[in-house]
Design goal:
single chain, mainly alpha, 11 helices
């Protein structure tokens, strides 16, 4: 017996393939392409190591020339300020005595401990600044005479300068302090044992140097636009140059009292019946003369020395580019 199956009810369930019909208002987006990884070739960085030994020699030679030129005058002024503060000798007497030694026995003066301390201080400062310039030109592959004024140079130079200056001040205070403290003038002589420098003196010396450094690097751009200079004067000298000399010199009116107070804490230690009023009177007595003397040392230290250092280094570095 044959039975015919009715397949009308099976339509769409067996023979037809399932399909998906989206609503008319839905727009299907094509599938996103698979992410691709872009390979960026590494670019080799070239350093400027051309004639590097000669460039380092140039840095050290320029620093030696600058420090050797400015150290005699700065030695004389620094010694006079400390001897005046300790009542060992008035400013004028101390300056004339040191000048006489420099002119009549220069080999004795220049080889003395005070002169060598000052020379080392500025040699280290200039050599650090020059070394940062050479390091920068090497890493950035720029010309050898290139100089930089970035924060790295400021921080490095400031750190070296302040460290050496604090050591120099401690030695000068011992050598030219009160005779009863055992300091020997000129780096020799004098009996007894020198006292330790009080921590407060070191703090005052550091604050003094911070003010001078601030006035040398940060203050000139702020002061320059305020200077009452006519157009005719500006044709001869720029505002920036005038401010570069005036700012560090003027700040000595504020930093010198810190210097004198630090010296007085060493010369007359605390606990010996010396009150703050007596210290204020001593600082006030020496303030004007010492301020003028410190202004005189700023010009060679931050003006003449910087010009000589830059000029010698520039000339020697220029030979590399020829």
């Amino acid at each position: 017996m044959t039975r015919n199956l009715d397949t009308t009810d099976l339509d769409g369930s067996i023979s037809d393939k399932p399909s998906f019909n989206p609503p008319p208002h839905v727009v299907l987006k094509p599938p996103a392409p698979a992410p691709t990884t872009t390979v960026i070739p590494l670019k080799s960085h070239k350093w400027n190591t051309r004639d590097l030994p000669w460039r380092i020699t140039s840095d050290l030679t320029a620093a030696a020339c600058a420090s050797g030129l400015v150290s005699p005058l700065i030695t004389i002024i620094d010694r006079a300020i400390i001897e005046n503060a300790s009542n060992r000798a008035p400013l004028r007497t101390s300056i004339l005595t040191s000048l006489s030694t420099l002119l009549t026995r220069p080999h004795i003066f220049l080889s003395s401990k005070p002169a060598l301390l000052i020379t080392s201080l500025y040699f280290g400062t200039y050599a650090t600044a020059n070394g940062i310039d050479t390091l920068s030109s090497t890493l950035s592959n720029t010309a050898a005479p290139t100089t930089t004024s970035g924060p790295a140079k400021f921080v490095a130079t400031t750190g070296v300068n302040m460290s050496l200056c604090l050591y120099k001040d401690s030695q000068f205070a011992r050598m030219f302090g009160p005779l009863s403290s055992g300091g020997g003038g000129g780096g020799g002589g004098g009996g007894g044992v020198a006292r330790a420098i009080p921590s407060a003196s070191y703090a005052l010396f550091a604050l003094r140097d911070s003010l001078t450094i601030f006035a040398s690097f940060n203050l000139p751009p702020l002061v320059a636009p305020l200077l009452p200079m006519s157009a005719e004067v500006e044709k001869q000298v720029s505002r920036a140059s005038v401010a570069q000399f005036l700012a560090p010199a003027g700040i000595q009116l504020l930093s010198t009292p810190l210097h004198l107070w630090g010296l007085d804490l060493y010369n007359r230690p605390m606990g010996n019946g010396v009150g703050w009023r007596k210290r204020v009177r001593r600082v006030g007595r020496d303030w004007l003369g010492s301020s003028l003397a410190r202004m005189g040392r700023v010009v060679p230290a931050f003006g003449v020395g910087g010009v000589v250092n830059k000029g010698v280094r520039g000339r020697m570095m220029g030979l590399v580019e020829e």
